[in-house]
Amino acid sequence: METANNNLTMEFTITAGDFSTAGKAASEVKRILGQIGFPPAIIRRVAVATYEAEMNIVIHSFGGKITLFITPRKINILCEDNGPGIADIDLAMQEGFSTAPDKIRELGFGAGMGLPNIKRCSDEFKIYSEVGKGTKLEISIKLVE
Amino acid sequence: MQLNQLKELLKCEVLTNEDKLDIEVKQICAAELMSNVLTCIGTNTLLITGLNNMQVIRTAEMSDIPAVIFIQGRKPNAEVIKLAQDKGIVILVTEYSLFTSCGILYASGLRCGLDGNC
Question: Which single residue of A117, A141, B26, B100 has CA 20 to 30 Å from A92?
């Protein structure tokens, strides 16, 4: 965690396939935002977006990282993974589309709601992906209008 | 309704945070799909589910859900119980099925947290 000029940066390494620690990064983010004193509705949106993104990295990638940049005006969440990438982003953004195997569904995920959920929590949402390289999400949640 | 009353209605065993049974329950979210739960924005919502893994507790944590009810006596493992204890989330276990549990809670006046604007 680094602070400079009223900005705060947090970086988390996410391990692929580790379901017992999946959610730890989002939990830490939630705890720190609570300590800083952000409004509960903002904390919830950041926590849900981070958690869904973290689950995606655990489920679909070969590992990655989540970086939070907190500024006085907004919270940016950058999610980058090394992974197979997404061949058809429009399809991946459709609610109900998923490539997750059954064992993920047994955990209560993999129903094709993660990316749409992240978008719903965001004020700005961008997704970039390259097959064979990985996927990057840029999520932004405004703190002031 | 207080969580205490709900505990009696569903004949629940309490596994964690028994000191928090005075929580006021406003609505219920019954789901197996955690991404569905994460779309619910209501407050003082309880989760009732047939799953009993770590992600249920993480989902409750992210969604500010103060208590989780596991159905059909499905007690979670020690790791799940510890996480719930640490995060201040109440775990209740009922022997009733999901359908029966929801029926009892609906009849007592509680409604779904996923309906309407959630």
Answer: A141
